Amino acid sequence: MLNFLSLSLTPTALIAVNHQLKVPKSFKVTSMDKPSTYKYPELMKKQEEKVKEKVETVVLSTTAKVKARTDRKNKAEGGDVEMSEAPADA
Predict the structure, then answer these.
(1) How confident is the model at residue 82 (pLDDT cuts 50, 70, 90)?
(2) With 60 as the cut, is the pLDDT of residue 35 above it?
(3) pTM, entire model
(4) Distance from chain centroid for Cα 30
(5) What is the pLDDT of residue 12?
(6) Alpha-carbon distance 13 to 34, whole Å?
(7) Per-residue confidence (pLDDT) for residue 32, from 0 to 100
(8) Are 15 and 29 spatial neighbours (Cβ–Cβ below 8 Å)?
(9) What angle do CA 14, 16, 19 make, to 5 degrees?
(10) Whole-angstrom Cα distance, residue 77 to residue 69?
């Protein structure tokens, strides 16, 4: 809120009226500022769509450690062979 207080105290407009609140006919203002101060902002340009490049997926060190740990557990338990259920003959 304090940031806007300074804006309210600085003159931001020039209003020229006489005692009847009418604009005088012989009113002229000379400004020594450069014209770019008062120029309209440039129109926004349409941005061309950029082609997104695919980025290589990175394998984190924690992922590698977890995978190594599970591999060691599988070898310690009896190998990498998975057992499937045999069909029961009745």
Answers:
(1) low
(2) yes
(3) 0.26
(4) 42
(5) 66
(6) 17
(7) 85
(8) no
(9) 145
(10) 12
Residue positions counted in the chain: 90
CB distance 74 to 80 below 8 Å: yes
Give the whole-angstrom CA distance, residue 74 versus residue 76.
Answer: 5
CB atoms within 10 A of CB 74: 13
pLDDT tens digits for range 1-10: 677 777 677 6
Task: Give me the phi and psi of 41, to 5 degrees please.
Answer: -65, 150
- Give the three-state DSSP class for 22: coil
Q: For residue 41, give both structure tokens.
A: 């902002």
**C-beta separation of 48 from 33 below 8 A:** no
* H helix count then E strand count, the chain: 2, 0
Those residues whose C-beta lies under 8 Å from the C-beta of residue 27, and which sit 6 or more positions away, are 16
Show the tokens assigned to 45: 């340009």
Report the chain's terminal Cα–Cα distance, integer Å.
85
